[in-house]
Amino acid sequence: MATYTPPLTPPSEPTKRLKNLEPEPIDINIPDNYVQHTLKTQKELPPITWSNWYRELQWISVLALTITPALAIYGAFTTKLTWQTGLFSVFYYYVTGLGITAGYHRLWAHRSYNASKPLQYFLALAGSGAVEGSIKWWSRGHRAHHRYTDTELDPYSAQKGFWWSHVGWMLFKPRRKPGVADVSDLSRNEVVRWQHRWYVWLILGMGFGLPTVVPGLLWGDWWGGFFYAGALRLTFVHHSTFCVNSLAHWLGETPFDDKHTPRDHVITALVTIGEGYHNFHHQFPMDYRNAIKWYQYDPTKWFIMACQWVGLASHLKTFPDNEVRKGQLTMQLKRLRETQEKLTWAPDSNDLPIVSWDSFQEQSAKRPLILIAGFIHDVASFLDEHPGGRHLLVKYIGKDATTAFFGGVYDHSNAAHNLLSMHRVGILQHGYRQSLDDKAIPPAQRLRIARYNELGSSTAVSDAETLVGEKEEKEA
Ligand SMILES: [Zn+2]
Ligand SMILES: [Zn+2]
């Protein structure tokens, strides 16, 4: 005999973890109600106010984020910008920006592809030139941002305002620790460890040293290199990547999900080297792409693809297209549902009185009632509007005009059928097997957006008599 229960997956090999040598995932023993538990038990620093803000500053970030633009402004007024230094500054902006977007973000924080050692060292160096903290610190915060998006445990929650998510979270001491996120994989990574260890030297060398030395040695523009390729370029890299936390959670559309703040917008993409399709990114964070359409601006994706072509990157992860489209469809249906709800529809069958033939006859003597597809319609307001003339309607008062309406006299349009349904005032007892016939459902209501818990209660009544019976049984 066949076994119908599917066999359980055989137990996997117990993980061979070398105790004390390899770090354990930090979140392996967290309680099931971690978020609630932490919010309740963890102490939060008091909110920043006009009276305490100067005591709450994080001086290292404050200095880095004020001295850099100050140097850039001073340089702009005192040093002539040569075209060579100008071009190099733009080029170096992209190099260091990609260090963050392709390196810190998509490679290390999200593991969306595999990078060879040379590429990893390049990205670690380039990322250091963006002066945004070490890979390990940055990725730890970013993983918390994805795991606890928009909550108190999100280190740069967009719920706390545009400027807080842009720079405020760095300028002030965090009000609470970011939610737990494991980075044990990064602690094991040789390149990440190397960068963390030499970080101070790397930011001096890559942030200011290299951009000064290259223009200095090659075309003798030492100060131009320092001010433009160093300070001004760094100011731009800072605020462009910060826009991923601020602008990308404020500006644009939500084509994949609207549960949280992340949004898609081409402007954000343009200023962030392609990180602007942030609604997609928060839904599918392990996808190496941010933009899925070929014409959308995502140089970070193009860079990773190019690295794959030359053999420096592999295992580029993409989310199954089928699942991506489900998200899109959900959002499209939501918008259609809103449109559907704004329209006025024919009265629900369950709300209409069930009328006997005799009563229908009696009432037709007092007002113009016409029977079509089991529904009784009051056409008083429509008599003079009827394109075929008043006489054709009057002829059917107190009668069944189903055949005439559906082609016997004139095959009415869908619009006419929709309009007719708006005049429904009752249902004829034993009148019509309504759910079995398209004629009973106005064309605009045959395909509708319904929530899963609404699907049981159809607007069409299967049989007036049974329904009345059922109702009475339930009430009894
Ligand atoms: Zn985000
Ligand atoms: Zn991310």
Automatic annotation (TrEMBL):
<keyword id="KW-0813">Transport</keyword>
<keyword id="KW-0275">Fatty acid biosynthesis</keyword>
<keyword id="KW-0249">Electron transport</keyword>
<dbReference type="InterPro" id="IPR018506">
    <property type="entry name" value="Cyt_B5_heme-BS"/>
</dbReference>
<dbReference type="Pfam" id="PF00487">
    <property type="entry name" value="FA_desaturase"/>
</dbReference>
<dbReference type="Pfam" id="PF00173">
    <property type="entry name" value="Cyt-b5"/>
</dbReference>
<feature type="transmembrane region" description="Helical">
    <location>
        <begin position="198"/>
        <end position="220"/>
    </location>
</feature>
<keyword id="KW-0560">Oxidoreductase</keyword>
<dbReference type="InterPro" id="IPR005804">
    <property type="entry name" value="FA_desaturase_dom"/>
</dbReference>
<dbReference type="GO" id="GO:0006636">
    <property type="term" value="P:unsaturated fatty acid biosynthetic process"/>
</dbReference>
<feature type="region of interest" description="Disordered">
    <location>
        <begin position="1"/>
        <end position="22"/>
    </location>
</feature>
<feature type="transmembrane region" description="Helical">
    <location>
        <begin position="89"/>
        <end position="107"/>
    </location>
</feature>
<keyword id="KW-0443">Lipid metabolism</keyword>
<keyword id="KW-0276">Fatty acid metabolism</keyword>
<comment type="function">
    <text>Stearoyl-CoA desaturase that utilizes O(2) and electrons from reduced cytochrome b5 to introduce the first double bond into saturated fatty acyl-CoA substrates.</text>
</comment>
<dbReference type="InterPro" id="IPR001522">
    <property type="entry name" value="FADS-1_CS"/>
</dbReference>
<dbReference type="InterPro" id="IPR001199">
    <property type="entry name" value="Cyt_B5-like_heme/steroid-bd"/>
</dbReference>
<keyword id="KW-0812">Transmembrane</keyword>
<dbReference type="GO" id="GO:0004768">
    <property type="term" value="F:stearoyl-CoA 9-desaturase activity"/>
</dbReference>
<dbReference type="InterPro" id="IPR009160">
    <property type="entry name" value="Acyl-CoA_deSatase_haem/ster-bd"/>
</dbReference>
<dbReference type="GO" id="GO:0005506">
    <property type="term" value="F:iron ion binding"/>
</dbReference>
<keyword id="KW-0349">Heme</keyword>
<protein>
    <recommendedName>
        <fullName>Acyl-CoA desaturase</fullName>
        <ecNumber>1.14.19.1</ecNumber>
    </recommendedName>
</protein>
<dbReference type="GO" id="GO:0005789">
    <property type="term" value="C:endoplasmic reticulum membrane"/>
</dbReference>
<keyword id="KW-0472">Membrane</keyword>
<feature type="domain" description="Cytochrome b5 heme-binding">
    <location>
        <begin position="370"/>
        <end position="429"/>
    </location>
</feature>
<keyword id="KW-1133">Transmembrane helix</keyword>
<dbReference type="InterPro" id="IPR015876">
    <property type="entry name" value="Acyl-CoA_DS"/>
</dbReference>
<keyword id="KW-0444">Lipid biosynthesis</keyword>
<comment type="similarity">
    <text>Belongs to the fatty acid desaturase type 1 family.</text>
</comment>
<keyword id="KW-0408">Iron</keyword>
<dbReference type="InterPro" id="IPR036400">
    <property type="entry name" value="Cyt_B5-like_heme/steroid_sf"/>
</dbReference>
<keyword id="KW-0479">Metal-binding</keyword>
<dbReference type="GO" id="GO:0020037">
    <property type="term" value="F:heme binding"/>
</dbReference>
<feature type="transmembrane region" description="Helical">
    <location>
        <begin position="57"/>
        <end position="77"/>
    </location>
</feature>
